[in-house]
């Protein structure tokens, strides 16, 4: 059912969804691996889709960890709200800092992203990345996956350290960027 919903959304709006199928469990595990779940107090997920990463985030987080899920698609967001009612939800990744205020968060320790940046205009990429930079605490980490290395230069210009993992067991194989903000 999840895959059918994802495919339907992709066919209606491929630029917004970015993939024909949800991410694999291998990619999901690679995305949540960099997070220190014992110390994380504030985590955001951008572009949650059907909740492949959300499931792991909810399972691994401590009870004190406040999580905000950003998903533009109303149907997908409502589904996630039903599945994970203890998390917080917002519709627009361009409004990370205003959502933080709404939920009483000063800064995020980690921001995980499944957004298809390759499909976005440079203006939209910059708008989202400006929000990410403002929202992350010093020493915080932005973790994002992409199907290409197109974002490498832009991320290297914004973050103190950028490292990559390659996840071949996914349709399509993906790169996981781990981007650390300067302290």
Automatic annotation (TrEMBL):
InterPro entries the record matches: Methyltransf_25, SAM-dependent_MTases_sf
Organism of origin: Aneurinibacillus danicus
Domain Methyltransferase per the UniProt entry, residue ranges: 43-140
Pfam families, per the entry: Methyltransf_25
Record's keyword annotation contains Mitochondrion: no
GO molecular function: methyltransferase activity
One of the protein's GO biological processes: methylation
This protein's name: SAM-dependent methyltransferase
Database matches in Gene3D superfamilies: Vaccinia Virus protein VP39
Keywords: Methyltransferase, Transferase
């Amino acid at each position: 059912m999840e895959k059918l919903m994802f495919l339907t959304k992709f066919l209606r709006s491929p630029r917004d969804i970015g993939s024909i199928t949800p991410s694999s469990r291998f990619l999901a595990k690679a995305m949540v691996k960099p997070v220190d779940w014992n110390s994380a107090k504030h985590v955001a997920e951008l572009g949650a889709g059907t909740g492949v990463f959300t499931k792991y985030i909810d399972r691994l987080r401590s009870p004190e960890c406040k999580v905000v899920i950003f998903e533009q698609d109303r149907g997908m967001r409502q589904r996630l709200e039903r599945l994970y009612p203890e998390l917080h939800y917002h519709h627009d990744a361009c409004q990370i800092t205003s959502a933080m205020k709404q939920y009483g968060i000063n800064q995020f320790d980690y921001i995980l992203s499944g957004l298809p940046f390759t499909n976005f205009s440079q203006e939209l990429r910059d708008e989202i990345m400006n929000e990410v930079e403002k929202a992350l605490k010093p020493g915080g980490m932005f973790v994002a996956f992409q199907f290409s290395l197109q974002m490498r230069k832009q991320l290297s210009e914004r973050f103190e350290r950028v490292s990559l993992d390659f996840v071949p067991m996914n349709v399509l194989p993906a790169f996981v960027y781990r981007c650390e903000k300067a302290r």
